[in-house]
Amino acid sequence: MTSPDLVLAAGAVLWRPAASGEGIEIALVHRPKYDDWSHPKGKLKRGETAEECALREIREETGQSCALGARLPTVRYMANGRPKEVTYWAARALGGTFTPTREIDALAWLPPAPARRRLTQAHDRELLDVLLATTAR
After folding, report:
1. Angle at 39 between CA 34 and CA 41, to 5 degrees
2. pLDDT bucket at 134, cuts 50 / 70 / 90
């Protein structure tokens, strides 16, 4: 049973093969409201599964369709005084076009090391580390 105050969300560490053919690139989104860089994620809508939410949020925030892969660690933290639980996957980008919005004003595709440095939150860096250790080699 979950607390009525618990905020449920889902997202992914979105990746694609690098254009050079060597390695991968990681998609990071910039949220102007918080002036931070993170992985695409968002709150579940009523009746939506975590998988459906992750796919929807990736499409809304990056313009990309994707294939969900390995499940990554669930992240728990306090947000605006409420507990938040975010379910994450590794996700391979399949294509699409980014359009800036008020919520997400920039998308960056970066090799893993620069992506890790740009991520604002430690838990986002940890998710990237797990992805690199288990997926998308």
Report:
1. 80
2. confident
Q: Give the model confidence (pLDDT) of 62-79 as tens digits.
A: 999 999 999 999 999 998
Instruction: Please provide residue 90's backbone torsions phi and psi, each rounded to the nearest 5 degrees.
Output: -80, 140
Report yes or no: 42 and 54 within 8 Å, Cβ to Cβ.
no
Q: In a 3-state reduction of DSSP, which class is residue 29? A: strand
Q: Give the residue from 10, 17, 24, 7 showing the smallest Cα distance to 128.
A: 24
Task: Return the CATH fold of 7-134.
Answer: Nucleoside Triphosphate Pyrophosphohydrolase (3.90.79)
User: 12 pLDDT exceeds 80?
Assistant: yes
Domain range list for the chain: 7-134
- H or E element in which residue 4 lies: none
Q: Give the span between the Cα atoms of 74 and 107, in whole angstroms.
A: 23
Q: How far apart are CA 49 and CA 128, in angstroms?
A: 23
* Chain segment 80-122, per-residue pLDDT in tens: 899 999 999 999 999 999 999 999 999 999 999 999 999 999 9
Alpha helical stretches, state H, 14-121: 50-62, 112-118
